[in-house]
Amino acid sequence: MEALKATGICHAYGQGGEKKTAVLKDFALELAPGAFEVLMGPSGSGKSTFLHLAAGLLTAESGQICIGGTDVTALGDGAAAKFRRRHVGVVFQSFNLLDALTVADNIVLPVKLDHGRPDAARLAVLVEKLGLAGKETRRPPELSGGERQRVAIARALFAEPDIILADEPTGNLDVAAAKDLCALLQSLNRDEKSAILLVTHDPVVAAAATRVHFLKNGKIAASFDTNHDPAAISAKYLETYR
Ligand SMILES: Nc1ncnc2c1ncn2[C@@H]1O[C@H](COP(=O)(O)OP(=O)(O)OP(=O)(O)O)[C@@H](O)[C@H]1O
Ligand SMILES: [Mg+2]
Q1: Which one, of 125, 121, 151, 126, lies nearest residue 138 by Cα?
Q2: Which residues crowd ion ligand 2, with CB under 5 Å?
Q3: What is the CB neighbour count within 10 angstroms for residue 15?
Q4: 44-52 average pLDDT score
């Protein structure tokens, strides 16, 4: 069963008398279990819109999104929220950590909201893998931007979701921290079961993934293997959007 399968997605913003502009038009995308793929496209092309739809934070006008074989577009609000906490991990810039909670409590929050008992061994493994050992009792304001981003990734991974949706996770990081985060995502993708769908403008970041999709005029205009080659990604990008 695909980690993610979106078909026939249409979405427009604007309500009431406002003129609606279609952002996604018959959009389709498929990720195999454990895949690590990238979604690219110019500013305003609809990348974040799709991630929000896939995360269940927005409802599509039409179309279907299946996560690990479950049609999330058919779930009611309550069931959708519960499903999301277990099966979808999000790393969004606007989806902040809670400053009042410690690093450890932020990481296990979705499981607690789900009335689950967080597995302490799982927490220890993730804290170690994400280089947060010794920082479990700190609060987000006492962490660097890169550390905060790693806490968000640990939180997203905790429940072993089918897919991690990450919207420009390297956006606020310097070049070295962005490079570290890419290497980390690659190793997490090898060790963990979750597929990763990453949105980025940076071809160097995109090259960490195995496949890239270009969004144009509301749908995927081109998809290809990255071969981990940033120069080839840049060249195809220019070709697609010139
Ligand atoms: N809440 C909203 N209400 C109205 N229009 C919106 C809303 N959110 C996004 N849009 C519009 O939808 C289009 C797609 O936005 P989206 O955020 O998905 O683009 P993006 O590809 O993520 O861009 P960026 O690379 O700048 O993050 C844009 O034209 C944007 O102005
Ligand atoms: Mg965006």
Answers
A1: 151
A2: 48
A3: 7
A4: 96
Q: In the chain, what percentage of residues exceed pLDDT 90?
A: 68
Q: Which atom of ligand 1 is closest in space to residue 215's alpha carbon?
A: 21
Distance (Å) from CA 61 to ligand 1 centroid? 16
Pick the atom of ligand 1 nearest to 51's CA: 18
- Amino acid identity of residue 25, one-letter, is K
Q: Where are the domains of the chain?
A: 4-95+162-241
Please check whether residue 140 is in contact with residue 103, taking contact to mean a CB–CB distance below 8 angstroms.
yes
What letter represents residue 240's amino acid?
T
Measured between alpha carbons, how far is 116 from 110 in angstroms, rounded to an integer? 9
The model's pLDDT over 59-107, given as tens digits with 9 standing for 90+, comes to 888 999 999 999 988 888 788 888 888 999 999 876 689 999 999 999 9
How many angstroms separate the CA atoms of 57 and 64, rounded? 14
Pocket probe for ligand 1: among 27, 38, 45, 217, the residue whose CB has the most ligand atoms within 8 Å is 45
Residues near ligand 1 (Cβ within 6 A): 13, 23, 41, 43-49
What pLDDT, on the 0 to 100 scale, is given for residue 17?
66
CATH class belonging to 4-95+162-241: alpha beta
Alpha-helical runs (H) found in 88-144 = 103-113, 120-129
